[in-house]
Amino acid sequence: MGFSQLLSRMATDNGHGEDSPYFDGWKAYDRNPYHPTKNPNGVIQMGLAENQLSFDLIEDWIKENPRASICTREGIDAFKDIANFQDYHGLPEFRKAVAKFMGRVRGDRVTFDPDRIVMSGGATGANELIMYCLADPGDAFLVPSPYYPAFDRDLRWRTGVQIIPVMCDNSNNFRVTKEALEEAYQKAQEDNIRVKGLIITNPSNPLGTILDKETLKGLVSFINEKNIHLVCDEIYAATVFRSPNFVSVSEIIEEDVNCNRNLIHIVYSLSKDMGLPGFRVGIVYSYNDAVVTCGRKMSSFGLVSSQTQHLLASMLLDDDFVEKFLAESSRRLANRHNVFTKGLELVGIGCLESNAGLFCWMDLHRLLKEQTFEAEMILWRMIINDVKLNVSPGSSFHCKEPGWFRVCIANMDDETVEVALERIRTFVRQGKDADAPVKKKHWQNSALRLSLSSRRCDEGVLSPHSPMTPHLMSPHSPLVRART
Ligand SMILES: Cc1ncc(COP(=O)(O)O)c(C=O)c1O
């Protein structure tokens, strides 16, 4: 019996999307990780959307609250009860704390009902769980592009649901328009594909932008008109570091009396807003009773550990801590974003204007030899192999236009950011001045200079009709969670 017959189709197909050249970036990092003293010429990891800027605040709180941890002298009394707890409703105080935190992150303009919170293993599990509740194999969800690459795994792989990209482009800062939505929807109808919903990420990964109120209202009326679901992945809600304020779909439906609430679902997690991806705390918040009931049964496959629930219940119900954490975290993110974008501006590199997220959407289309995804790949390999930065190319986010790169900026310290910036600046300056003698740095090998002088900086025109590259995954952390 061949290997493919011994195992299931799912086990042997490529639905998880991890067998792709984009993992070369991760491999390059794994083989040669940067360290300021032990390996200063190594690869800097900028493909990881982690929020490590405010860990000290959480660590301080843990030290000051030993009773919240069940493995301390002060907290051991709760050990037995918590270690035995496995109810899929979750600890009541945990659900209460998460509901309160969600409200706080949304400026207390809206409240959340703890009884509507369904637990899952991170937003990854939450996104899959909601697909299982809403769609059958073969059904489709519309997803505005560029989008989080692991949606291809999370929404599709095990559920059999299809993704239909809604094409957005730089002509209007990648906004989701009614026309683009209609076009994607109509095309699906023509192809006899049943569209069950629209899923959006707000704030956006990879763009770092937020949806304005008018756009959100437009999306809500679109899905009501078509009688399809709206899933809002709001896991970056507290990463908004500058005005305008984040607007949640929960606020829109408060105002819209005609909205059918049974169609609205929020996915949330503490991976980004609190910087706790390893805790695997994700939730589905659904306004639909049947989804809450069914989702809760499904959550048996991905409960949050009761130890984690117990700890977070205390932490998130501490109003002073939450207040301070949210304010300080966004202040630090703003600062980091400012340093990074200003550092790029020095060599004329721009980023999409943004006010949220743990990354910048960097525009390198001028460095492409021609405006194609092949040229984007060549530049990307150069950045990984020669400049030694692991960034993610736009094509892995299904971006329609070549030349965009997502660069994560919150998973490292200030010194590493400076090193990364200096590498980028040297790279760009060398490109502009390829024939001038260059003072070679350790991390630059001769291949870089050769490729740079043959590359030059062609000012090509972006083609809005560039074909999409075939489905490829990004070297993004959740795909290799075990190793990160
Ligand atoms: C938009 C989006 N949704 C979901 C996830 C998965 O998050 P979690 O770590 O909570 O599973 C990510 C992680 O990067 C993400 O960017």
TrEMBL record:
<keyword id="KW-0175">Coiled coil</keyword>
<keyword id="KW-0456">Lyase</keyword>
<dbReference type="Pfam" id="PF00155">
    <property type="entry name" value="Aminotran_1_2"/>
</dbReference>
<comment type="similarity">
    <text>Belongs to the class-I pyridoxal-phosphate-dependent aminotransferase family.</text>
</comment>
<dbReference type="InterPro" id="IPR004839">
    <property type="entry name" value="Aminotransferase_I/II_large"/>
</dbReference>
<feature type="coiled-coil region">
    <location>
        <begin position="171"/>
        <end position="198"/>
    </location>
</feature>
<dbReference type="InterPro" id="IPR015424">
    <property type="entry name" value="PyrdxlP-dep_Trfase"/>
</dbReference>
<feature type="region of interest" description="Disordered">
    <location>
        <begin position="461"/>
        <end position="484"/>
    </location>
</feature>
<keyword id="KW-0292">Fruit ripening</keyword>
<dbReference type="GO" id="GO:0016847">
    <property type="term" value="F:1-aminocyclopropane-1-carboxylate synthase activity"/>
</dbReference>
<keyword id="KW-0949">S-adenosyl-L-methionine</keyword>
<dbReference type="GO" id="GO:0030170">
    <property type="term" value="F:pyridoxal phosphate binding"/>
</dbReference>
<dbReference type="InterPro" id="IPR050478">
    <property type="entry name" value="Ethylene_sulfur-biosynth"/>
</dbReference>
<dbReference type="GO" id="GO:0009693">
    <property type="term" value="P:ethylene biosynthetic process"/>
</dbReference>
<dbReference type="InterPro" id="IPR004838">
    <property type="entry name" value="NHTrfase_class1_PyrdxlP-BS"/>
</dbReference>
<dbReference type="GO" id="GO:0008483">
    <property type="term" value="F:transaminase activity"/>
</dbReference>
<dbReference type="InterPro" id="IPR015422">
    <property type="entry name" value="PyrdxlP-dep_Trfase_small"/>
</dbReference>
<keyword id="KW-0663">Pyridoxal phosphate</keyword>
<dbReference type="InterPro" id="IPR015421">
    <property type="entry name" value="PyrdxlP-dep_Trfase_major"/>
</dbReference>
<keyword id="KW-0266">Ethylene biosynthesis</keyword>
<protein>
    <recommendedName>
        <fullName>1-aminocyclopropane-1-carboxylate synthase</fullName>
        <ecNumber>4.4.1.14</ecNumber>
    </recommendedName>
</protein>
<comment type="pathway">
    <text>Alkene biosynthesis; ethylene biosynthesis via S-adenosyl-L-methionine; ethylene from S-adenosyl-L-methionine: step 1/2.</text>
</comment>
<feature type="domain" description="Aminotransferase class I/classII large">
    <location>
        <begin position="44"/>
        <end position="424"/>
    </location>
</feature>
<dbReference type="GO" id="GO:0009835">
    <property type="term" value="P:fruit ripening"/>
</dbReference>
